[in-house]
Amino acid sequence: MHTSPPSLDYQKLARQIKGWAQELGFARAGVTSIDLSHAEAGLQEWLDAGFHGEMDYMARHGMKRARPHELHAGTISLISVFLPYLPLAAANSEEILANGSKAYLSRYALGRDYHKVLKGRLQQLADRLVKEIGPFGHRVFVDSAPVLEVEIATQAGQGWRGKHTLLINREYGSYFFIGELFTDLPLPADPQQQEEHCGRCARCMTACPTGAIVAPYQVDARRCISYLTIELKGSIPLPFRSMLGNRVYGCDDCQMVCPWNRFAVNTKEADFHVRHGLDDVTLVELFAWSEADFKQKMAGSAIFRIGYEQWLRNIAVGLGNAPASPGVITALMARAGDPSEIVREHVLWALGQHGVYDTDLRPGLLLF
Length: 368
Fold this sequence. Notes:
Elements (H helix, E strand, L loop, with lengths): L9 H14 L4 E6 L6 H9 L7 H6 L6 H4 L5 E8 L8 H6 L3 E4 L8 H20 L4 E4 L7 H7 L4 E2 L5 E2 L7 E8 L19 H5 L5 E3 L2 E2 L5 H7 L6 H4 L5 E3 L3 H4 L24 E2 H5 L3 H8 L8 H15 L4 H8 L7 H13 L15
Parallel strand pairs: 3-10
Antiparallel strand pairs: 1-2, 2-7, 3-11, 4-7, 5-6, 8-9
């Protein structure tokens, strides 16, 4: 627990924290209390509907997500920060999505792993606080524990929850990462932004390729392309495969159509700049990567955690949806006998999409 004298000016300290956060590269910081009880009913309904899919940890943690003091004992104030990630020089998203031979990867994953970047930066903020007031109780969170990040950010005046459930800020749009610093400091809470600015707009809902936004502010993760390509470990359900198009890691469609992203700010963080040309690369090229290639190129990337098998699974689906060409068929046939049952299954499905079936896979077969 924090042992600073009660005479400490916490109003002034909160202002200093926000300034230090911006010095560290965060767009802004806000402070809120730990009372998230109003979010518990909605969270329970979402879990009861099964919308979390195979993300068992969400049900396992239950209401702990809405009770910060249960996550870190002694917590009485929450500091919310966000950091833009949109790379300035990345290829145009709409153009990549429109070219079925290219691979589309969510723009947040084109650079280094955001977990490490934000955690390191938040720890620097905590260290700066220690230097100012001495030791205090705290814990850093970046999408790494059962934390209601958007709810905390909304309550801290950072913006509002869009109908796609992501946080939107008037000056920054929604292309940013969120992080939290739980503290035992009695910091004054910022006023919550009472008004949300989506109005009658439902572009995110109609743009979702799989209809995952089943109602305003409610996403069925089981239908979400980010879930299907990242969180789901087994086979991608057949009805969704053609809907994935060329999206092989995550999906940005709901953000791309959001009018507020006209104000999206490009990142200043070198760590989020495009690596290995992942913003504009063909599916065939990525499918040719060996496991060693994957591990070497994806080291330090958020993509690394899905593993090579899931990577190939996703790309196989993309190739099944790609315009037919000798290169696409050759790439798929080269992995028709892959050691992984999951990869083989998706490769054979993809070949079937191009009119090539199990019985056709004979040596010397001329497809073109």
